[in-house]
Structures are given as C-alpha cells and as structure tokens.
Amino acid sequence: MQKLLCLRAWYTHLGKRQSHFKKLKCRSDVCTFCHKYDKVFLPSLRTLLSQSESKMIAHQPDYWKAIQVYWNSLELQGKTDPDDQCSLQYVRAAIKYMRRMLAARAALPVPDVAGALGARLDFHKDEADAMAALAKANVILECCEHHFSGVKRQHGFREDKVDNLEHHCVDIQLDFMENMTTPLGTEEAQDWFWATARQSITTLGFYAHYWLNGVEHRQYFHFISDILNHDSTFAVQAFGDLLLRLGLSDQHTVLHVFADCGPHFRRNDGQFGLQRRWAVDYARDHVISDVSDMKGALEAGAMMTMSLDPPPAGPSYHIVVFTPAAKPKFVDKLDNSKTDLQIEYTYCLRIQRHPVHMYVAVIKDFVYSDRSTDEQKGVSIGNVVMKRQPAKEESWRVSYRKTEPEKDTLNVGVLQRRLDHQKHAKLANLASRADPEIVKLARDQRREAKRKAKYLRTYADYGMLRTQLQHD
C-alpha cells in the first residue's frame, strides 16, 4: 500500500479513516485578522455601502451629492484614506452626514399631500437602519485600524534594530521551520511513500546581527536535526550553542531576542524559503535521504548564495547538524507568577547586563497587542526567579489542515480588547489596510505561503502522474 498511493490519494485515505485530519490551505501562514478583513469583512462592507446608497437614492435622488462633492475635494488634496470609500474615514463621514440630513429633514414640516407622512416615516426608518448598520461597521473598522497601527509600530521597532544596530547590542531572531521530509531526489529515485516511509528533519533558524571588532556581522544559522518535536528544551540548547559560536565579548551588554509572536512577524520565512530552494535545486541531480545529505545540500546552496552577495557586505549562512543532549530529568523554568510577563504576548525580550554582577541581568518585555506598555521602551518584568521542576514528556507538534471556505467572521472581540488597552499608543495618523507598508507585509506573506503550497503541490502532481503511468 505504501508504494501504491500518491500524496493526494493518501490525503483521501486519511479523510476517510481519520476524521480529525484536515488539509491546511496556504493562507494559514498569513495574518488571520488581515485575511478575514480582506476576504470576509471588506466584501460585506462594500455590499452594505451599496445597499445604503441605493435605499437613500430611492427616497431622494440627490441624497449623496453633497458628501460626494466633499469626498472628491479631499481626494484632489490627497487627504483621503488609501482604502477610499471602504475606509474608517469615509464611514465616519457618512454616518455624520446622514445624521445631519436626518436632523435637517425632521425640522421641516410634512407636506400636506396624501401619503407624504408615510413616505417620511419610511425614509426615516431606512435612514436609521442604514446608520445603525454603518455604526456596527465603524466599530469593526476602528478595531482593524488599531491592528494596522500596532503592526506598523511593531514593524518599525524591528526595522530600526535591523538598520541602526548599536555596537554594544546583539540582535537575534529565531523560529522553527515546519518539518521537511526526505527522501528527495530525481524522479527515478523517488520510489517512496509520502507518510510513514519518510523521515522528517527539524530546522531551527537563527538570524544573528551584531558588531565585532568594528565589523558588522549578519549571519543565518540553520540548526537541522532528525527530531520531530519543537519544544523549548531543544531551542534552549541550540540557543546556547549559537551564543558560543558568535564569540561575543564583555563589550556586548544588550541582547534583543525576537520570536515570531504576533501578526505579520515571521522574520525567518525568507531564510526558510532559501532552504527549500537549496534542497529542491540539489535534489534535481542528487538524492537526499538523511540529515547528512541535507547538510551537504544546504551547504552547496549556501555557498552559491554567498558567492552572489559575499560577506561581510551580504549575510553569511551556516549549516549546523545539531544533536541535543539527553533529555534532563529536571529543567530550570522562569517563574512568572510574580511578574507581568505573559509569553504569548511577547515578541521581543531585551536582556541587559546588570551593573551589579550578583543580579546578572535586567530583562524588559516588548509586546504587540493589548498590554498597556510602551513598545519602544518595553517594561521590566521585575525580579527574575528561576525554579527547578521535573521535565515533562516531549510534546509533538501536529498541524491539522482545513479546506473549508471562509465562513468564520472577523474576531472583533480580540481587536476591541486590544484597542481598549492600547489607546495611548495609537499613531498620530490613521493606519490603513492599503498603506504601502501594510500592503507589502501582507503581500510578502501571501507570496511565501503560495510558494510553500506550490512546492507541496508539485510533488503531489508528480506522485499522481507516476501512479497513472504505472496503471497504464
């Protein structure tokens, strides 16, 4: 059975035998809020605006004339939101305009004509219903605008560290890559089944940016291992090995550690995209069957990439076959019960050497969502207390994939909570979904997600073709 089924047939088999298994579509790697905003909320908002305009025009043909003249004048001055009439700016203006029109009409006497009173009441009712619907959309737009504002603040903080790193600072970004599977190779050599007969390889990617001896270093490290679990014990051991490889000195007093927590914050995707490309290019002429073959494939790809943009002007790439130590019986954990640290909100930890050596370091927490802190300065988490506890069983990372259409609505509750807690940190100008910075971030995410999906679909199609040829 293993040699008869291709990937697509295997998914069909799993769907019948394992009801909990669902295939994930490529958009799972993009921001949930922006994706729902684009695919669910914006179409409904366009429909709502169109219906509201039609109802008002049916009662009064020139109802929207004044606001259209006002909006066109703002467009000529370049003062309109990039989202145009689907923006928070326009919806606010439309609600305010409709209230004025309603108040002005209510002050006028009803004409002494048969049916005039009923027509006036119908007009008022349709106008009130339209304003109520637009008011609900206005609440959602305010929440989404705050999300875009938070994305810009967080992205700006990260880019500042990339472009203007001080000499005493070390900037490290880390992320796990979804497991790659072997064997890979020429089509004649791939007589393998996609599931149990394949071996998974875990990759933990690091981006290290620092100054050493007056030279700026930008290095990417690919820690590859033949384990499946993406647990903290493996990450901690690899992180310690990385710090030893960097050769830092006492002059480095500040360490920024970034993770992929938060929307639009998957900094290592480009690194992992290169890794996939290296592996695929190498597999055209060679067979990759284990970790050592994968190391050779990635080193060959890294050498080719660095020849195009040599270090130190360009980044350097290092491939490390990492075997973690035996699982300890006890592990040291950070006790955050007496602090304000909530790791699910944290996208960066700033660790600074304490002037008094007995206190080791001062740790500051940077968050992306609904915690009342200053993203530019962070907040101290207080006294760091370590406690020793028995090591738990290894956790295995499982992805469940789904193909259903977009039925779930935008999670406004989460965005509203963030808005209530973060009003002090709003940008001076409204942040729009159509802002060039937000558009670029979302476009890059979709491109990476589609590239990953295309990579998987290619091998699925090859498997189907082989099966058909065998039957023929």
Structure, described:
The structure is a single chain. This protein is α+β, with helices and mostly antiparallel strands. Among the domains are: 1-30 and 441-472, no CATH class; 35-151, no CATH class; 174-247 and 266-321, no CATH class. The chain is 45% helix and 17% strand. It has helices spanning 7-17, 32-59, 65-76, 88-106, 116-163, 232-246, 269-283, 291-308, 412-421, 436-471; strands spanning 169-182, 199-212, 215-225, 254-258, 316-321, 330-335, 346-353, 361-367, 379-380, 385-390. An eight-stranded mixed sheet has the order 5-3-2-1-4-7-8-9, with helices on both faces. Strands 6-10 form a two-stranded antiparallel sheet. The chain is elongated and about 90 Å long. It starts with 6 loop residues before the first helix and ends with a helix. Mean pLDDT is 75; it is low at 1-7, 17-28, 187-196 and 395-405.
Summarize the structure.
With 472 residues, the chain is of the alpha+beta class. It is built from ten helices and ten strands.
- What's the alpha carbon Rg, rounded to whole Å? 28 Å
User: Treating each run of at least 4 consecutive H or I residues as one helix, how many helices?
Assistant: 10
Round the mean pLDDT to the nearest integer and report it: 75
The number of E-state strands comes to: 10
Q: Which structural class matches the secondary elements?
A: alpha+beta
Query: Strand portion, in percent?
Result: 15-25%
Helix content bin: 40-55%
Spell out the helices and strands N to C.
Answer: HHHHHEEEHEHHEEEEEEHH
Low-confidence stretches: 1-7, 17-28, 187-196, 395-405
